[in-house]
Amino acid sequence: MMRRRHLSAMSALAIAIACTALPSSAQLIVFDPNNYAQNVLTAARELQQINNQITSLHNQAQMLINQAKNLASLPYSSLQQLERSIQRTQELLTQAQRIAYDIKQIDRAFSTTYAPVSTSESDQALIANAQTRWQNSVAGLQDALRLQATVVGNLDTHRKEMSALVSSSQGATGALQASQAGNQLLGLQAQQLADLTAAVAAQGRAQNLETAQRTAAQDQGREQLRRFLAPGRGYQPSMVRMFHQ
Q1: What span, in angstroms and rounded, lies between the C-alpha atoms of 47 and 81?
Q2: Label partner for 28 (CA 20 to 30 A): which of 7, 52, 65, 138?
Q3: Residue 148 burial class via C-beta count within 10 angstroms: exposed 0-12, middle 13-18, buried 19 and up
Q4: Along the chain (245 residues), what's the average pLDDT of each consecutive run of 10 residues?
Q5: Residue spans of alpha helices (H) in the chain
Q6: Model-level pTM greater than 0.70?
Q7: How far apart are CA 223 and CA 243, in angstroms?
């Protein structure tokens, strides 16, 4: 027992001497959990700031790409086709025969050819005016038919242009392309309305000339009947002897 106690005392003394003899640089490192947690939190915040900067740069780059798309113009244009269609319609309107779409010319015609018949006019003048009015009516009907044929011919062009513009609008990559496609569709509609207006105007012109001709013919017929029945002119009743008398 005494031997065992002696060994224990010797061991404790040896440990004490060894601990006293160790230098300060070989002391044990103490772990501070609070300091570690603070360091981890700081690193996470810095990493989040870096991620935010990366996201911001990505958004700016995407914004620039979208702006470039919005500024891209539509590769398809129907302007030339629309201008050609309008030009054909305008040419037919300017080629109107005899009494054209001119106020002064219309007023002049209705003060002469379509004016009320004067008792002083000769029979030859009445016949010439009637023939002129008939020619005006025929010319008006011909002009209306030509213009209507042109408008009908434009329908196929309008169909192709509308299909191309709708396809371009659906495939637009930006606001500018969509806006340009929409503007061209509005231009196509305006051109169609112009064709419709021209056709209605030509048809109305033909009908008005025909109505004016009938009105003038009625007035001339009354004057010619008056002249026919006037004493000393026109028909003179006489006795007719039959063969058996």
Answers
A1: 60
A2: 7
A3: middle
A4: 51 50 54 79 86 80 66 74 85 90 92 91 91 94 93 87 81 77 84 90 93 93 87 63 57
A5: 2-21, 33-71, 79-94, 103-111, 123-170, 175-229
A6: no
A7: 37
